[in-house]
Write the structure tokens for this entry.
Amino acid sequence: MSSMIKIDKNKLWYRYCILIISLLISSIVFNLLLYPTSLVTGGMNGVAIIISHIIDTDPALIILVGSLILLGLSYLFLGLEQTSASLLATIVYPLFVSLTEPLTKTIVIDTTDLILISILVGILLGITNGLMYKVGFSNGGLNIISQISYKYFHISLAKSTMVINFIVVLIGGIYFGFNMMLYAFIIIYISSFVIDKIILGISSNKAFYITTSKEKEVSDYLIKKLNHTVTIFDVKGGFLQKKRRVLLAVVPTRDYYKLKEEIKEIDSKAFFMVTDAYEVKGGK
């Protein structure tokens, strides 16, 4: 029993370490790359950049006050359990933004090439946010509004988050210029892509679902030529209620093109679907 508690504590410390490191890197990215270039990418970072340029206020203070207000809303509408996932980030992130601000005086980065800066920011924010989400934490901020919208109005998290960030980016574009808005969308796209890869991993396998009238030939190719096993199961079409058999094969990504082309060569009328297989366990 004590060993299980020790394992759980180790996992908890690991999760908190990942969160703290991610927040620290995010704060450095904010101070060195986002704030000096006025790149409004949505979220509390974007709100802080806009407000601080309008009324000349410390962005760390804006992030703290805004996040605390949103945290209060989270407690009122979502409850303590869901709010606790955002609590640490709400307090620690603005603190890190304030503590890392002096780095701007010692580390000078050439920000004239905004395309390069946008790519770099997108990758770094994607990594840090992806790691936070993967260990079960939230970076709080405007995401809380999305969670409230989902609970009470059944609006999907992805859709509401996209709308909120779009509004923030649009305001930033109005204030800082249309080109800055385009750079922000580049960052958001790259960041979203990297987050998916961090959470799901990079797929090294492909799963083929194949329906063909030449079942034996396709199976033989998979088993004898590619040296992969095949699983065959019975299915029934929903429209015609016709019984068919589906071949399932998981192959390394390097064999994806060979198998796809061979299926079309064996049976030009074959129906097949290919998906990423992020984790494959067992089998031969």
User: Anything to note?
Assistant: The longest strand covers residues 243-252. Residues 143 and 173 are 21 Å apart (CA to CA). Residues 1-7 have pLDDT under 50 and may be disordered.
